[in-house]
Every structure is written in structure tokens, then in C-alpha cells.
Amino acid sequence: MSTPRSDASAASEPSPRPSSLDPRRTARATAFAVAATVIEKGGAMLLLLFIARTLGAEDFGRYAALMALVTFVQLGAEFGQEPVLVRLLAQRVRGDMQRLVDGAMAMRLAFTAVGGAVLIAVGARLLPIGAATVALAAGGLVATTGAVLRAVFRTEQRLDRLCVVALVNVTTFAAVLAIARAWQLGLAGVVAAWSMGQLGSSLTATALARRMLPVRPRWRTAVTATLARSGWALALNALLLTVTFRVGQLIVVDLLGAEQGGYLAAGSRLAEGFALVPEPLMLVLLPAFAAYDVAARGAQRALGVRVVRWLGVFALTIIVAASTAAPTLVVLLFGVRYLPAVPVLRVSIWLALLAATGSVLTNLLIARGLERVLLAANAVSSLVTIGLSLVVVPRLGFVGAAAVSLAASLLAQVLLAVFPATRADVLACVRPLGPPFVLALACVLVGMLLPGAPLATGAIVTLAFIGATVAIGALGMDDVRLLRDALGRTRRHPD
């Protein structure tokens, strides 16, 4: 076990050349990235199921709408910090780490305080929720300040610490949630539990980071300006993406009522849980993409092509299984009263494929400093989402809101394939997914038409899809070798 002194010294020194890296260390970091995402996102999904069953469709719809509004404000407070800070730390020179982290922490604390005040001012007016509950959510927003330290753990491949932080988050959330249910505190108790989970994770991240370097938020105008120059585009881009996924929730609650919003939340959040598959790999690959950008654009693109293919095939497997077994999944996870959410799940599950392609393309473009291209594509997509939602939701209800989100997400990636600066990368990445996509679509259509229990049908068509995918040679051992070589560059910095 390393001491605080040795960790801090290592953090301030330039990283070794790729030839001196330990492949086992990289493999360990990747395993911890997967574990951290499973704990954080998987735990959050389990708690969401508990919340849905506890509150019922109507209050669950209110909770989902409040969390959608919190997400909008939180993205503004984050201001695109983490990916930019990862890039700066990955390419840093001696002595920069402490200055960057100090400034980023102070910036995040100031921005979340302002965001919390905004949430209190507008939340109770926009949603059918009490002011006290909105204030609890605002407190949780301020408590997310420690998330800045994720960038340090990612850059230094100390992703085991992300696991600890995620475990504390989920455990604290669950413990307070159990108390809230026992005392029948309703929606306010659930929001308080979420806020305490955020506080627990920030305190834990701070304690762990102090073993590597002092954690002392200090306002540094130069650091804030540097982060803001790239971060504003990422923040606005993330906000626009959130419009695509969350504005439908707010519109449904406003036009159709909280119960209909609960059905939309159940189906779409379950699908989004499956769409989180790429996230653990992205925790490791953004520094790798950034390092490749210094050395070789061709190798960077080759890595992106392979990763999209791996994730795309895996996402398509999930899509086939979830689409055919949707009724059983919804009843098993949410209960019989949420059966109206089945069509939402069948529509939204295709977001898993767009998440597989989009996450890689986003990180590739961030590594190249093309955040503004992402911004332009997502701006168009968000405008389309708002416009179509106002037209479609009154006619097709909450299922229409899910369809609009899917169409707008697809549009954003189509636009990236049109822009000259990104066309070659996008087409190179998505072209290999053509045959697996056709196979998956055929399996889904056949599976929905076959008689029998949905779970059994889902198993049959999923196995058929896997067999067909292997038969056409969608993956190979050279893919594994390329990933291993790329991860060996994750900690490479220019001299």
C-alpha cells in the first residue's frame, strides 16, 4: 500500500513512457472502472426500482420530473469540468496537478451554490412539488462538489477509489431511503436520501484524494478561465443532450399528469440503465484517446472503430433480449401496475445502440478539441426534441415522448456524419455495425411475433442473434490486442 507522501509525489511527476507501464496495472484499472459503474449505476437502478414501488406511479412521476430539473441545473453547475480536467491532467507538465485541482474544486463549489439557489427559485413554480422538497434537492446539488476529484482518480488510474466512492454513495442513499420509508416520509424523504448519498460520496472522495495530494479549494482565475473555455461547450452540449432525454418527462407531467410521467420514467429509465454499458470503458479510454491525439491520429481512429464495434454488438444483444422480454421485465422489476410502460421500454431500448456509438464518438471528439461540433449537432437535436414533443405528446402520449427522444438522438449522430470535420471518423466507426444491426432488427421483429412466454422467446432470439453475429465474424482476437495496446498508453504524457 502506498503512503500519502509517495502518492502525492507520483502525482506531481510526469508519467512513464508506455514501455515502462505495467499491463497488469492497466487491466486492474479497467476492472475497477467496470466495478465502479456497476456499483454506482446498478445500485442507482435498484434504488430507482425500490422508489417506484414505494411511491406509486403518480409520486414517482413527480420524483422523475424533479430529478430531470436537478439534472439540468447540475449540468450547468458542472460546466463540463470533468472531461476537460481529465485532458489537462493527462497532458500536464510538472507541478500543474495541484493548481488545476485546487481551482477546479473552488469553481465547482461556487457554481453548485449558484445552481442550488436557482433550483430553489424556479423548482417549486415549475413542478407540483413543495418548496421544502425542492430545497432538499438543492442541498444535494451543492453536495456534489467532490465529484471533481473523479478526474484525478481517472487520470492516475486509481479507479479502485471510484469504487469506494460509488459504494458509499449507494449505501448512504439506501440507508436513508429505508429510514424514510419506515417513517413514511414520502417524496421528501426520497429526495433527502438522494442528497445524503451525494454528500457521502463527496466526503469519501475528498478523504481518498488527500492520500494523493492536498485537497484545498482555492479560487484560481486562470484555471477557471482555462476550464471554462472548453467546458462551456461541453456543458451546453450535455445540457442539450439532457433536453433530448428529459424534456419529454417535464412535458408529459405538465400536459398529461404525474401518473403518465411515472410510466414514461419507468420504461425510459430501465432502457437508459442498459444504455450505460459503455461508461466503464470510457472512464479509461478518454485519457487513452487524449494520449493518442498527441502521437497518432490514425491509431486513435482505429481504436475508436474497434470500441464502437465491441460496444455496438453488445448493445444490440441487449436490445434483442429486452425488446422481446419487455412485458416480463417490467412486471418483474416495477410491478403489474407499470405494465403500460412496456411500449416505452421497447422504443427506448434502442438508445443502447446510440449510447454505444455516441459515447465513443463524443470522447474521440473531446480528445481532439472538437467540442463545438458536438454542440452544434446536439443543439439541432434538442430543438427538434422540444418542437416534436409539443406536437407528438398530446397525440401519442408518453410513448410518443419516448419515440421523439430516440429520433432526436439518432439525428444528432446523423449530423456528425454530415459535418466535414467528423464525417470520416463517424462513418468509419459505424460502418462495421451494419450487418449486426440488420440481424438484431430481424430478431426483434421475429421475437415480437412468436407465440409463447416473453422470457422464453427472448432467450431463443437472443441466442440466435449471438450465433449469427459470431458466424459473420463481427469480433476477433486482433480487437483484444488493439485494446490492450491502447490502454497501455493511457498514462502517457508529452515530455
Can you offer a commentary on this structure?
The protein is an all-alpha fold and 495 residues long. It has one domain. The chain contains 20 helices and no strands. The chain has helices at residues 4-12, 23-78, 81-90, 96-126, 131-142, 150-155, 160-182, 186-209, 221-256, 258-274, 279-295, 297-324, 326-333, 342-348, 351-367, 371-418, 420-430, 434-449, 454-471, 477-487. The longest helix is centred in the first third of the chain and has 56 residues, at 23-78.
In short:
This protein has 495 residues and is mainly alpha-helical. It has helices at residues 4-12, 23-78, 81-90, 96-126, 131-142, 150-155, 160-182, 186-209, 221-256, 258-274, 279-295, 297-324, 326-333, 342-348, 351-367, 371-418, 420-430, 434-449, 454-471, 477-487. The longest helix is centred in the N-terminal third of the chain and has 56 residues, at 23-78.
Features:
495 residues, 82% helix, 20 helices, disordered N terminus, disordered C terminus, single chain
* Annotation, overall tally of beta strands: 0
The average pLDDT value, as a whole number, equals 82
Percent of residues in beta strands? under 5%
**Termini separation:** 28 Å
Radius of gyration: 22 Å
Residues in helices, as a percent range: over 70%
Number of domain units: 1
Structural class: mainly alpha
Overall form: globular
Q: How many helical elements?
A: 20
In N-to-C order, the SSE pattern is: HHHHHHHHHHHHHHHHHHHH
Stretches where pLDDT is under 50 for at least 5 consecutive residues are 1-22, 489-495
